[in-house]
Amino acid sequence: MKRLTEFDQLADPTFSQAVIDWQRSHGRHTLPWQNTTDAYRIWLSEIMLQQTQVAAVLGYYGRFLERFPTVQALAEAPSEDVMAHWSGLGYYTRARNLHACAKRVVEQYGGIFPGDPALLAELPGIGRSTAAAIAAFSVGARAAIMDGNVKRVFARVFGIEQYPGEKRVEDALWRRAEALLPETGVESYTQGLMDLGATLCTRSRPDCPRCPLRERCVAYATGRTAELPVRKPKKTSPEKRAALLVVIDGGQVLLEQRASSGIWGGLLSLPEVDGHLGGEVDAVAAASVVAAGAQFGTVDEVEALRPLVHVFTHYKLHIAPWQVRLSARGGATGRHVWWDLQAIADAPLPAPVKKLLLELGRPGLFG
DNA sequence: CTCCAGTCTA
DNA sequence: TAGACTGGAG
Fold first, then answer.
1. From the CB of residue A56, how many other CB atoms can be counted at a distance below 10 Å?
2. Would you call A161 a catalytic residue per the annotation?
3. Which strand C nucleotides have any atom less than 7 A from protein CB atoms?
4. Which end of chain A is less crowded, N or C, counting CB atoms within 10 A of the terminal residue's CB?
C-alpha cells in the first residue's frame, strides 16, 4: 500500500470541476483581455490588474494597446511615451518594469513570450502568480496563481485560520493551489478562481447563496465568512511603564508641570518616579517611591493604587500610581503646585491622570 | 483613520 | 521579513 503524499491528500478533482462549471456558466467572458491567447495582450492586462481594479484598467487597456499594438512597438517606444500612457494608473514601477520586460522579450525571446512560467517569472515585473496567469491563459500551462482573490477563496473554503501573509501559510496555500490544478481546462479554472473572488467571494458581504463552493466551504458552514481570511496581526505597539506619585496632604495633591515638548507637553501631571519600571508592586518599588516622595516632605506611608493602562496611537503606557501620605511638607520646586483635590476637575491634566485623581477624591474607593 | 494588494528591494 | 508603491473599501 502506497502512502499518500501531502499533494495527493490535497488533490480533489471535484473542486476544480465545480470552479470550471461555474466559470463557464456564470463567470466573466467579455473583458477586453479575454478570448485571446496573445501573450502580449494577456501580459499587459495582468500587469495593469496588479493592485488595480478592473474598472480602472478598462479605461487604459485599449488606449495602451492602440499606441503599442505589439511587444516590439512597446520595446521600441521612448520611455516617456510609455509612462504617459500609464499616467494615472499608479504604481509606476509597473510601467518601468513593463517597458524593461518588453525589451527583454524582444531581445531575449525574439518578441515571443515564453510559455514556461518559470521563465516568465524571471522577467521584470512578473512574479510567480502573474507568470502562472500568463502561462495558463496563453498556452494552457498547468500553473497555479495565488493572488488576493485566491487567498480569500481558499482561506474561506478550507477554513484557514492563519494569516495568509505569513510565509509558512502562504507556502501551504501555494502547495494547495498546485494540488488542486485540473488536468485540463486550466484557463477556465484560473479565470473562475479570479471571478469567484471578484464577484461572489468578496471581502465584505460575500454572495454565498450563488457560490458553487458553498457546500464545501468551511467558513460558510461555520458562519465565519466575515472572519476569514484573518487580517494581518497588528504588530504590538511598544509598551512603556511609569510610576506616578500621588502625594496627598491636607486635602491637596502635588502636581508637576511637564516639559513643553513630548508626551502630555505643557500639562500638569503627577510627579514621575524614574529609575525603575512602573509595573512592579513590591518592596523595591515601594522603597523607590519613599525615596522619591522624600523630596516633597516627610513621608508617612506609601500605598500602591490600582494600576491603569493608557493606550496612545503609537504605544501603550502602563501607569503604576502610588499614594504617598506626608506628615510634613517641604522641598517642592517651582515646577510643582499643590492643588485642592476638590477642584481637581479644573486642573489641566491628561485624561487618565484626571480620571485617577477624580476616583481618588471619591471617598471609600481607595480606603 | 486602517487594511489591503504583487513585485521588488533593503 | 518589512516597507515602498498608490488608491479604494470600510
1. 15
2. no
3. 1, 5-10
4. N
